[in-house]
Design brief:
Length: 294
């Protein structure tokens, strides 16, 4: 699959019989996959459906799935509470018999609080199963839409990551040229050291040669530059390939930074040090963007 991000939102609405609902799926960054579901009472099987569907589609990210449902009230779901009505009639009988109140009318009785109430219609098992299956289909559709949204984010991330890699590649080339200049700088430093020690003991001259050898080894950054170049190639392959790349990109960013730190520690010139510091800044930008990749 193409490069995918980890943030997105999707909403799907549905209806079946006298039920209506809406499914909302949200996703944010996460090191691992964590799916949470919240749905209506009585549809407990939907949680397993949502979790399985999320695991089948995603590798990383915190995913929250909410299903908000309501059952439409119909005339058949309204009933008269006979006990409340009888209580009102009993209380009013004495008032009517003594002439202090007129006989109650139907519309007056029905308007009294508690006389009319909504009654939940019983659903048979087959009808409830049909509703749950329709809701499950909406959950799957919402996760499909969320996957598409995360894919759009991945498409937007690809050129950003590519620009960071281009800049890293350019800085590696700059560092290679500046590393060559270190040889001349070390030679000049060594020559000055030898001039300072002229006329001293042979032991002093030997120490100067040892210092020069240490500086030469320290200044050799070819291995670091070669490894950085190979990391760039590996990162390009990841962002251009199929399958989740976030974890491996994050690991590569750490390896990039390790080599850049070594490069800076070996630097013997201000120019190479400046390039190494800029390299570290770009690598950090790459790492931050890699954390958005699935």
């Amino acid at each position: 699959m193409p490069l995918s991000g980890m943030t997105g939102f999707a909403r799907v609405e549905g209806a079946h019989g006298d039920w209506t609902w809406a499914v909302e799926a949200r996703s944010v960054n996460g090191r691992n996959l964590e799916a949470r579901f919240k749905g209506p009472n009585g549809f407990d099987g939907l949680e397993r459906v949502a979790r399985d569907a999320a695991q089948a589609r995603f590798q990383r990210g915190q995913i929250n799935i909410g299903l908000h449902a309501r059952r439409n009230e119909t005339a058949a779901s309204v009933r008269i509470n006979e006990e409340v009505l009888a209580r009102y009639l009993e209380l009013g009988r004495g008032l009517v018999e003594t002439g202090r109140a007129a006989p109650a009318t139907v519309d007056g009785l029905l308007s009294l609080r508690g006389v009319i109430e909504a009654a939940e219609e019983d659903e048979n098992a087959d009808a409830r199963a049909e509703v749950e299956a329709a809701m499950a289909a909406s959950v799957e559709a919402a996760l499909d839409a969320l996957k598409a949204a995360r894919g759009q984010e991945g498409a937007a991330l690809r050129p950003v990551l590519g620009e960071h890699l281009n800049r890293i590649e350019q800085l590696i080339a700059d560092a290679g040229r500046e590393a060559e200049a270190q040889v001349a700088a070390i030679r000049d430093r060594f020559a000055r050291r030898m001039a300072e020690l002229a006329g001293d003991t042979p032991e002093a001259a030997e120490r100067a040669f040892q210092e020069a050898a240490v500086l030469a080894v320290r200044a050799d950054v070819r291995e670091e530059l070669d490894r950085l170049t190979s990391h760039v190639a590996a990162a390009r392959e990841l962002i251009g390939g199929a399958g989740p790349a976030g974890r491996r990109l994050d690991f590569l960013a750490q390896e990039f930074m390790r080599e850049a730190n070594t490069l800076c520690s070996k630097s013997a010139t201000t120019a190479l040090t400046a390039t190494g510091l800029e390299l570290k800044a770009v690598i950090e930008q790459l790492r931050e963007q890699a954390q958005n990749v699935e």
